[in-house]
Target: ADP-ribosylation factor-like protein 15
Amino acid sequence: WQCFRALCCKGPPPPRPEYDLVCIGLSGSGKTSLLSQLCSESPENIVSTTGFSIKAVPFQNAILNVKELGGADNIRKYWSRYYQGSQGVIFVLDSASSEDDLETARNELHSALQHPQLCTLPFLILANHQDKPAARSIQEV
Model:
């Protein structure tokens, strides 16, 4: 009986660990598209994030709770209010953007890298839009 019980009555699977991440980058860099793709959502009707949104991105061994912060100029000054509790950072940049926008993204990245709540966390820097003709290589970015 014990052997049969062990085979059929395992119970629910153990809970997957959850990690809280913050996703930042300028408007139009592709943050929302990235998260929609990771959540297997339709790429249709993607609207730029105003303020912030939170998505739970499921993986086989973990769940990433990603707080995506809007990248508009008037919103970026509030990013730091949402950093607390983060365990990692995804920084998305448009590798095909103008030189001015790339410089702005560089400044925002450096600011995030130096922020007391983020400076010790792992960073993923994603050079998005590599499929566009104007895209810079990883070395150029």
